[in-house]
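Re: beginner question about structure tokens

> Can someone show what the tokenized structure looks like for a real chain? I only ever see the sequence side.

Sure, here's an example I had lying around. Input first:
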Amino acid sequence: MSKHAPEPISMFDARILKPALLDSIKKLDPRGLWRNPVMLCVEIASFITLITFVMSLTGANREPAWFTGLVSVWLWLTVIFATFAEALAEGRGKARAASLRKSRTEVTAKRLKKPEYGSSYEIVAAESLRKDDYILVEAHEMIAGDGDVVAGAALVNEAAVTGESAPVVRESGGDRSAVTGGTEVIANSIIVRITANPGETFLDRMISLIEGAKRRKTPNEIALEVLLIALTLVFLLVCANISPLSVYSVKAAGQGTPVSLTVLVALFVCLAPTTIAALLPAIGIAGMDRLFQKNVIALSGRAIEAAGDVNVLLLDKTGTITLGNREAVELVPVGGHTEKELAEAALIASLTDETPEGRSVVALAKKKYGMSMESLPADAQTIAFSAETRLSGVDVGGRKYRKGASDSAISFVKGMGAAIIPDNLKDVVDKIARAGATPLVVCCDAEIFGVINLKDIIKGGIQERFQQLRSMGIKTIMITGDNPLTAAAIAAEAQVDDFLAQAKPEDKLRLIKENQEQGFMVAMTGDGTNDAPALAQADVAVAMNTGTQPAREAANIIDLDSNPTKLLDIVEVGKQILMTRGNLTTFSISNDVAKYFAIVPAMMLSIYPQLNVLNVMHLASHFSAILSAVIFNALIIPVLVPLALKGTKFRPMPAEKLLIHNLFIYGLGGMVAPFVGIKAIDMVVALFA
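And the corresponding structure tokens:
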């Protein structure tokens, strides 16, 4: 059995680069570019400089044609680099969506007249199926649409959707009834009730979301965009007022020339927050792509952002904090019996027990005591576990071997004629229970041999993960159906902040509401129908792909691997997106400091020669200074594209320290980088100017 998450697609892959280059040109259409107002303004500025270049060629403009021409070229490149960044991010998603589309073939379905085996049916195309239609799916047939199994059980190959090569069981009732369109039944037959209309299936939503083209902007993106537009309007007003101011200054000083339209346009583009405006769409799309690499589908960008702001994590104990299956770790004899006698009795009682717990008892007897038994005699009778007896075991050779709950085992041996119960049995059982484990008492006929210590094994490294979350100010709460004593022991070992024992659906919902009323953002995982109300209430709701249809519909994130620990990865990706957006915004705005020193002295130098003291970079001329700033402003976009797509490295630390760290790196770096870059470009431009 193997599971394959989607492999990362390199941004330098020819399959991505070529279509992205073509799409970047298509995205220059103002009818599409209006969604990015800052870059639309830059495109308008590019048209203006193109006109001034034509005027320079005809002699209508006093500025050198090479200068206006190069400024126009680099302003156009600024817009193209911006559209290329978005096209590149979308291209990676489209490549993944193309692979998903391959799993969609012309599928037909057997639509039943009645939802029962033996009912007549008609062959219809998958596109004609609607909600509440019933279909029969037999071995080696594709499931035509999303739905719930209402009758039967079958092995289903879901590799096309989840990457899981081993088939999974889907059956009516319980938490394993949901099926996905495009998957294949490989054994048995099932009756499925369709739960999604064409175009609304899980696979359709996956393709649409992964492509990113139809991705809606998130609240944080909208707020940041409003800030960028406001800054752009401020700089537009500033540049518009510089022109009459320079005309007045020329008359007042009696020297120099007014600032030209080309220079004003260059100043506006360099001071506007073009860098972050160009990269903002790519950051959000790339965030969804990084989640998809982890086999996680976010049904909205809002869910990813909320994950970055999570304060409280609700985690199921089983499968998230513990391995999910209890293991036998110790055999404790009582009543004068030896460990060897207990091991032999436990081995026989567990030999036909196919549960993970039963197999772990057999493994412990073999590993620690060197005992093994391939099979039981032909006359052996297996006694299966039942809710009434709470015991399981084997009858062999006239003897009755049993293991199970303490009170059930005591009742059993008393029924077999036992007059005395070992004095130390209660102490051993209580000690194991207080430690957070499960005691299983082993007996044979009228004798109790001892106790098996079945322990919930804490996942390796989970304590370190919780420590990281704690350092980020995130509170972890373990949810379990165990009694408070056992829950407290496991919570202490796992080092979670709090726990909810004997949790029922209404308890989970109440806990989420209480935390939300205190102003916290809450995330949780779930897979059952009884989890649906809590998932619908949580800010970040992660449903397991193997879960029920109600759970998946209530969630805003779906984990294709059905691994509850993914919640921790989702939080990290959410924070990474917020950090990347904030860091690049800081870098973009900090860039303007160096551009002031490059452009402002250059454009006013002929009027006020004293401004040359601000030429701290000692740029060659006012033409090369302005052109160098424009070139740097354009080149910094493709330089930062890899960072936008990959994301800022996540560092688990308190928000205050993280803010200081990022201000130092991206704030100070954003000030220093343009000084170095503009000077280097100026040295090259000066050679040809």
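Each token stands for a local structural state, so reading them left to right follows the chain. Residues 566-604 form the longest helix (39 residues).
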